[in-house]
Amino acid sequence: MKLIHGKTLRKYGRNIIKDAVTGDFHQADICLLKQYAELIGVIERQIEECRNALISMCQEHFPKQFKRLQSIPGVKERAASAIIAETGADMKPFEKATNLVGWCGLKPRNDISNNKVKSNRTTHGNRFLRQILIEISWVASRTRNCFFSNFSYVQCTQRHKNKMKIQVAIARKLLVAVWHMLTKDEDFIDVYLKRLEKQAEWQNDIQALESLLVG
Asked: What is the pLDDT of residue 83?
């Protein structure tokens, strides 16, 4: 049961899955299952080859952008190559970060009538890039001592917001960071860590002043 996805367990139940696995299989069923397993293996190998080829092309044609994107928490080689593949590492078509967010489909709707919010769901856009950013947001929200994990913690514990909505908000912030990094040729700057560093400096200054006053 540990190898079965949680959604499958919740949808069909443990008993049905157990009966399906422990039932009687004919030779024809065994042959079909073997062929399906081999086909899945071939597809997985092809996907892995495509991913490795994409990483190699990014390292060859976009080395600076490829390395720079990996300075974002939660972004590794595969995620960076996927972002470059979808955006082309060129932010000139997007005048502002909001244009890129809207193109991706992470911009919330502004559907208000008679002072009533009818819908604040995200707009349609590049679903491939949006899916990548959502996956990155889950990793970033679990990365210790970074802006995104602190943001997720505050939104969940103090404001009691929906976890999925928080991930969409993090994905939006990630994409804004990508636009600034690729436009200005800058690495990712974690404002949370900068704030911690400033607080540490202030504490050191206060301690130094206290020691001078006592002395």
From this structure: 93
Asked whether residue 142 falls in the same domain as residue 84, the answer is yes
Q: What is the CA radius of gyration of the chain?
A: 24
The length of the chain, given as a count of residues:
215
Number of structural domains (the chain) is 2
Mean pLDDT of 201-206: 75
With contact defined as beta carbons under 8 Å apart, do 137 and 174 qualify? Answer: yes
- Using CA atoms, how far apart are residues 29 and 107, in angstroms rounded to an integer? 48
pTM of the model: 0.74
Site of tokens 């002395």: 215
Residue 113 Cα distances to 105, 116, 119, 170, 182, angstroms: 22, 5, 10, 27, 37
Q: 183-215: buried (b, 16+ CB within 10 Å) or exposed (e) per residue?
A: eeeeebebeeeeeeeeeeeeeeeeeeeeeeeee
Answer yes or no: do 120 and 172 share one domain: yes
Pair 17, 99 in one domain: no
Element (H, E) at 144: none
Lookup result for tokens 């700057």: 189
Residues 114-130: tens digit of each pLDDT: 566 555 566 678 889 99
